[in-house]
Design brief:
single chain; alpha/beta; 7-stranded mixed β-sheet; 3-stranded antiparallel β-sheet; elongated
Length: 422
């Protein structure tokens, strides 16, 4: 018998054995999954012929039409499935971020039951809710029955295995709080669902602690793994605003189509779908991006109840208004320019447009707060009308003596020199 004949016999015997196993009334979900993988590896597809079990299964699935394809939820799902290895999904409250990601987790396990998924949230209960819903999807959808945990596997809301999964220290899906026992966990995909909430980000100390805690994710992740953040920023110094410096890509879906000022603030973080729809129809500005779920009237009611700052955070994913109320001093209120020592322009016009941002100076303030150059300077110069020097003596420790020289002209204050303020 030649080698080719031997391989053909082996392939035939394997196929016949698998056929016998899945035709057995006592066939287990693991047997069905092995047979499915065998067909997939041999590039065997099936068309749903009328009256066949496959056709009946297809008819039981919900209809999908072109109108549904334009929904925000499908755009989010597409980005979660095909996005970068490290992504941050920021979408308005109630859009279904967690629901969509639970479905994505189920799809991952359907395609590869050997994966390990770790769900981390600000609280343990929130993470448990995610895994509980994911397990219910598996238990209640007929097409996923082969993924149901066996009696000898883990099957709690804290952690569970899927039926075809091989023995492993790490469960198929596990939930944990961000302050819980992260060390020792291993995951192919890590879902950080609402990792930042008001209770753990109200102060700078809390935000620093949270920022350090999430660094553990890199030690948990397996090679070629993915980290997906789902959340809503709570302030301008939000963790989600800092993570891009660590290599994460941010994608934002606001509840309303943003205005021109918000478009500048969101920049390339705004979902391309939203930006394209605005470019195609300028009348969409200010209207709901998901009118089937949140009508314009409903959003107006929520804005009145939340207040401008709360609505901007929870539904527009815009932190500027919240922090503008808490931190009124902004470097964007300054005008940066070169002027002589003894005289200054008679009139200076301030502007905040993107074209007036001083790109050469590093941003030392909050994210999105930049130095600006003047929009216009009059040609007439005059001598300063007054000059003041203020000194702040040094205290104990590393505190330095600070000083500032400020001159005045026509209601403008010119900071000529300053030091000791590092």
């Amino acid at each position: 018998m030649t080698e080719k004949q031997l391989l053909e016999l082996l392939h035939k015997t394997l196929a016949e054995n698998l056929l016998a196993r899945i035709q057995d009334p006592d066939a287990k979900s693991a047997d069905l999954n092995v047979a499915r993988q065998f067909l997939k590896d041999n590039h065997i597809d099936a068309l749903p012929a009328d009256g066949s079990p496959l056709a009946d299964l297809v008819k039981s699935l919900p209809d999908f039409n072109d109108e549904d394809a334009d929904l925000v939820q499908y755009d989010i799902a597409k980005h979660i499935q095909h996005g970068d290895k490290r992504v941050i999904v920021e979408a308005f409250r109630g859009v279904g971020k967690s629901w969509i990601t639970s479905a994505y987790v189920v799809w991952l396990l359907y395609m590869n039951p050997q994966l390990n998924i770790l769900v981390v949230s600000a609280s343990k209960n929130r993470a448990d809710d995610f895994t509980t819903f994911t397990l219910r999807l598996i238990n209640e959808m007929p097409v996923l029955q082969h993924l149901m945990p066996r009696t000898d596997q883990r099957q709690s809301k804290i952690s569970f295995d899927v039926g075809p999964a091989a023995a492993s220290h790490a469960p198929s899906v596990k939930s944990v709080g961000v302050t819980g026992q992260l060390a020792g966990s291993r995951a192919d995909v890590l879902i950080a669902d609402d990792i930042e909430v008001p209770n753990n980000s109200a102060t700078q100390g809390m935000r620093d602690k949270l920022s350090e805690a999430v660094k553990e994710f890199d030690a948990i992740l397996k090679p070629d793994g993915r980290i997906i953040y789902l959340g809503t920023p709570q302030n301008q110094e939000s963790l989600y605003n800092k993570l891009p410096d660590r290599g994460y890509k941010v994608r934002i879906w606001p509840a309303r189509y943003p205005n021109e000022d918000q478009l500048v603030s969101l920049g390339d973080k705004l979902a391309p779908k939203i930006r394209k729809e605005i470019a195609d129809d300028a009348e969409l500005l200010g209207k709901s991006t998901d009118p089937k779920r949140f009508t314009d009237y409903d959003l107006a009611e929520r804005e009145a109840s939340y207040g401008r700052s709360g609505f901007a955070l929870q539904f527009m994913l815009d932190t500027r208004l919240s922090d503008a109320e808490r931190y009124p001093l902004k470097v964007s209120d300054l005008v940066v320019m070169d002027i002589p020592t003894s005289e200054a322009p008679d009139k200076v016009v301030w502007a905040s447009g993107e074209q007036y941002v001083v790109q050469e100076l590093p941003n030392v303030a909050f994210n999105g707060d930049y130095y600006h150059k003047p929009m216009h300077i009059s040609s007439q110069f005059e001598e300063y009308s007054g000059s003041v020097m203020s000194i702040d003596p040094s205290g104990r420790g590393k505190d330095e003596t600070g000083y500032a020289v400020v001159k005045m002209l026509n209601g403008f204050l010119y900071v000529r020199r300053c030091g000791g303020v590092d």
